[in-house]
Every structure is written in structure tokens, then in C-alpha cells.
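Appendix B, example 12.
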Amino acid sequence: MFRAAPHRRITLRRVLLYLALVACAAVMLFPFLWTVVTSITPEGTLANGPTLLVKDPTLNAYRTLFATLPMWRIVVNSFAIAVASVALQLVTGAMAGYAFARLSFRGRSVVFGAYLATLMVPLQVLVVPLFIEMKLLSLQDTYFSLLAPSMASALGVFLLKQAIEAVPRELDEAAVIDGASHLRIFAKVIVPLIKPSLATVAILAFMASWNSFLWPLVVIRSPELMTLPLGLSALHGQYTTAWDVVMAGSVVSIVPIAVVFVLAQRHIVAGLAHTGIK
């Protein structure tokens, strides 16, 4: 005779836990809600402190934003650079990860350790040498200069190497028996099995490129090459007290990356779990 499963008891501890989670979520969401509310508030200001109540909401701030800056061009620039960065990091990261995980060559551990050590070098240290390199090559103030530092990622190589090492080597051996080369093994066997990790690297690369500010600030001078962080910086300098316009620009910058993160967060979890990182 089967016994019915007991109902989950609602205890005081569980209620307090849910209340704490709701409070934490509210604290995290409030700045974003305040940004949206301020952007639709007529002549929005920070003088009266944060508020979520709007009288006579308006979209004038967004009209001013798009009339003042070439926002469509700026958004397209950011999106194009981010997509190109994602594509290049996936190609270089997956191929380098396969080499470190599957190919045996002298000094492999040393090379991988040195490559991984670059994660400890902040971008601020590399800005000047990178700028000098771009200037010597006459590539400053170009789309290529925006893209160059993000063509490869040590973090991406590490994550993809871990994912490839989790793939059983027996699959490689079976492919070799069938006459497959390393390139065919990589394309037909490895890549389809590490899609969660590829998705994780793609999302992280997209977010990093979309939010990049320091390098574009140093290397770009032409307004038509500006990305969203640079556009917001210029907007803040021009409209120091027009916070509704500044917040409208922030909303334009936040919404795309927020949508990408919400839609892809399960891939991040699955990808990190696939690489064996706790």
C-alpha cells in the first residue's frame, strides 16, 4: 500500500527565507526601476531623492537623446563589435582549448600556465602598450582597433579547455580509426559536445564587449565610431543636470544586455557545470 507524499510544511524559517529573498531582489531591482522612472519623468532630477511615482510621464528625454547623439549608429557599433568579438573568441578559444586539451607538445603546461597568468594582468596596465602598437600600425581610431584586444580571451580558452577535457577520449580514438584528422575531430566530435560551454563563453564575451569603456575611450576619436559607454559619457558631460536624458541613455544601454542575460542565464549555469567549475 503506497503512502501519499506529505505536503511540504510551511515553517517560520521558510517564510523568513522567502521574505529575505524578496527583500534582496527588491534592493537589486530598485536602481533599474529608478533609472526607468527617472527617464520618463518630466525634467527628471535627483534633487528630491529616489522615487517611483511619476506625474505626467513623458518620452521627451528619449527624443532629446536621439536628437542629440547618433544613437542608432552608436547602438549598431556596439552590437557589431560585440558580435564580432564573440565570433572571434569562440573560434580562437575553442581551437586553443582543443590544442591544450588534446595535443601533446613540449612545454604545453608551461605555455598554458603563462597564458592563464595573463588573467591576473588588468587592462589598465595594457592600455598604453596596446595604444602604442595601434598607433605604430596606423590602426588607431578604427573598428579594428576597437576589436583587437578582444579577439582572444584567456578565460574563454580555460573554460573551453576544461569542457574538451570532459569529453571522453574514446570518441577521438573511434574517429581516428575511421580516418578522421584533428580538424575533423574538432569540428564533428568536440564542438557539438561542448555547446553549453561555447554558449557561456559567447555570453561572457558579449557582455564584456558591450560594457567596455576604457579601451574605446583611449583609442577612438571619431564620433561615428563611438560605442554606447562612450556615448553615455559624452551625454553626461553635455547634460550634467538633465538626469532624465542621462537615464534614458542608461536604459538604452541596459535593456539589450539585460535581455541577453535573462534569456541566456541557464546556458551560463549549464556551461559552468559542464566545465566542472563549482
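The radius of gyration is 24 Å. The chain has a mean pLDDT of 83.
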